[in-house]
Specification:
Blueprint lengths: L35 E3 L32 E8 L2 E7 L1 H8 L12 E7 L5 E8 H4 L7 E9 L5 E8 L4 E7 L15 E2 L15 E4 L5 E6 L14 E5 L12 E2 L5 E10 L2 E8 L20 E6 L9 E7 L15 E5 L2 E8 L14 E7 L1 E2 L4 E2 L21 E2 L2 E2 L1 E9 L6 E18 L3 E18 L5 E18 L7 E9 L5 E9 L3
Parallel strand pairs: 1-28
Antiparallel strand pairs: 2-3, 3-4, 4-5, 5-24, 6-7, 7-8, 8-9, 10-11, 11-12, 12-13, 14-15, 15-16, 16-17, 18-19, 19-20, 21-22, 23-30, 25-26, 26-29, 27-28, 27-29, 27-30
Length: about 525
């Protein structure tokens, strides 16, 4: 079992044991697959519970995940769910420790998260680039897209920085993989035929336009003859029909004060290129329509003819450095995503790291809603906050919910399951997860959990130490669905705490059962 950061002492909050864990008499009509067993008394007790990770309390939706460092976001929607991928800063942290620095060279994996409500996030584990692409030096700053192809299946294409010297690509038929490397080598490197004057061809940004044509932007460094004002190294290329080759020459995007973090969106017939500006002093500025961008801010440009460098129009900066927004200064990398008829800006920030016991430059993912005028392809000024995005739909407690789908938690660990992209929750006695906004719209009759090991789970509504609405106790060597028909009567929308006894127990899924079933 891989234990992630757990540096906080318990705040001695008594978790009252509830007597609702025994004597289920019938197997409820639940959806979790597998055999069922009733909750039984095994002598397992839960003691005091710790506080939430100091990096993310119950009041703030940022960062997305409290106990895993990750950065450089990208996202894709599939089947009504939003999947987010990011640089795995946690891998660097695990290699160098809390006193080490995030110099990125140990990172050869990509973190996978997903949501359908923008506040409760499912951690799906990692994409192991080191195993899939053993030639890769590192894997940073992914960019993902998808399309339905002739076989009727949705295919996913994820591009990533091969350190600072190129771009790799992996593909899958599911947003959770399994992923494969179709080329067995970089898609782009400094020696790629036709690519000139791009010292650091990294930080890819991909989009597919309305004609089904793929486009890839990338770049970094200063071209020969480039300047601080116009480094001359941002590039774009049309991808081939297979999405892993090229169908055009490489063209320059004349991005002022360009540094890194290329990304592409396609909005209402317009190609929208976003990038991170440098820290350099803005001594030169020729654009009379827009003000010069703030240092290390995110800026954007637009065009309808992406291979014509003269067609690109600078449109201003839209997201200042997180340090100018009270979230600590850092590098800057955003992803603009439309989901559920709203636009969101994903970004990373350093503010959680101190509360997790380090100041080594380890970043955490965040998201806030942002306004986009689609007709004009105009991005309004965005703001980063600890409060983050609002919940756009409630959790349905009567369907199967993953134990690793959480808002925040205390002292938990993750373990890989045999199912791709499915993680298991573990921890210590008194560890807990917190799920925001579960809508009990029906009368509740029972509760079931898919578990393994010897342990106990107690479910509380709205606060630990408040009403225990269900509890199951178990002792099983293999995964089993354990249930109780002694769930408390509850209605309306409530936040849920799942308190576990820890030890060797693993927690996979949960579901409440309504009397109507």
């Amino acid at each position: 079992m891989k234990k992630f950061i757990s540096l906080f002492s318990a705040l001695s909050m008594a978790a009252a044991l509830c007597s609702c864990g025994n004597a289920a008499v019938t197997v409820p009509n639940v959806d979790i697959n597998g055999d069922y067993a009733k909750s039984q008394s095994c002598g397992v007790k839960i003691g005091s519970c710790g506080s939430a990770y100091a990096s993310k309390t119950e009041e703030n939706a940022n960062p997305l995940i409290a106990n895993i460092f990750c950065a450089d976001p990208t996202a894709v929607e599939y089947d009504g769910r939003l999947y987010v991928y990011s640089t795995n800063d946690q891998q660097q942290y695990d290699a160098v420790g809390s006193d080490g620095s995030n110099t990125y060279e140990k990172i050869k994996s990509i973190v996978m998260l997903s949501t359908d409500d923008m506040v409760n996030w499912t951690y799906h584990g990692i994409i192991d680039i080191g195993e899939i692409s053993p030639w890769a030096i590192a894997s940073w700053a992914p960019s993902v897209t998808s399309r339905v192809e002739e076989d009727g299946k949705t295919h996913f294409y994820l591009y990533y920085s091969n350190s600072g010297c190129g771009v790799g690509v992996i593909t899958a038929e599911s947003p959770l993989g399994p992923w494969t490397d179709p080329l067995g080598e970089p898609l782009i490197s400094t020696s790629t035929k036709g690519l000139k004057d791009c010292p650091n061809p990294f930080d890819p940004g991909v989009c597919i336009d309305e004609n089904g044509v793929g486009w890839l932007s990338f770049g970094g460094g200063k071209a020969s003859g480039g300047s601080e004002y116009m480094p001359g190294s941002a590039r774009i290329v049309q991808l081939g029909d297979d999405m892993i080759s090229f169908a055009s020459d490489f063209a320059e995007i004349p991005a002022a004060y360009f540094f890194e973090a290329s990304e592409l969106n396609y909005i209402n017939g317009t190609y929208v290129y976003t990038y991170n500006t440098s820290w350099d002093t803005r001594l030169e500025w020729e654009n009379k329509k827009y003000l010069r961008p703030a240092a290390c801010s995110m800026a954007y440009m637009t065009t309808r003819t992406p291979l014509d460098p003269d067609s690109w129009e600078y449109r201003g900066d839209y997201f200042k450095n997180p340090g100018e927004q009270g979230l600590e200064y850092s590098n800057n990398h955003t992803h603009l995503q439309k989901y559920a008829d709203r636009y969101y800006l994903f970004y990373h920030a350093l503010f959680p790291q101190k509360s997790l016991g380090t100041e080594g430059g380890f970043r955490s993912l965040c998201v806030n809603e942002i306004t986009v005028n689609e007709e004009a392809a105009e991005i309004s000024k965005g703001t980063g906050t600890k409060k983050g995005a609002e919940q756009i739909k409630n959790i349905d407690p009567y369907k199967i919910n993953q134990a690793e789908t959480i808002f925040t938690a205390s002292d938990i660990s993750y373990t890989n399951s045999e199912e791709n992209g499915n993680m298991l929750i573990g921890g210590n006695n008194g560890s807990w997860t917190y799920v925001k906004g579960a809508d009990f719209s029906e009368k509740t009759s029972a509760f079931a959990a898919k578990v393994k090991g010897r342990g106990r789970i107690e479910v509380y509504a709205d606060s630990i130490g408040g009403e225990c609405i269900a509890a199951v106790e178990f002792d099983c060597n293999e995964f089993q669905n354990v249930y109780t028909d002694k769930a408390a009567k509850i209605d309306g929308v409530h936040d849920l705490y799942f308190v576990i006894s820890g030890g060797d127990m693993l927690f996979d899924e949960w579901q409440f059962i309504s009397k109507s079933k």
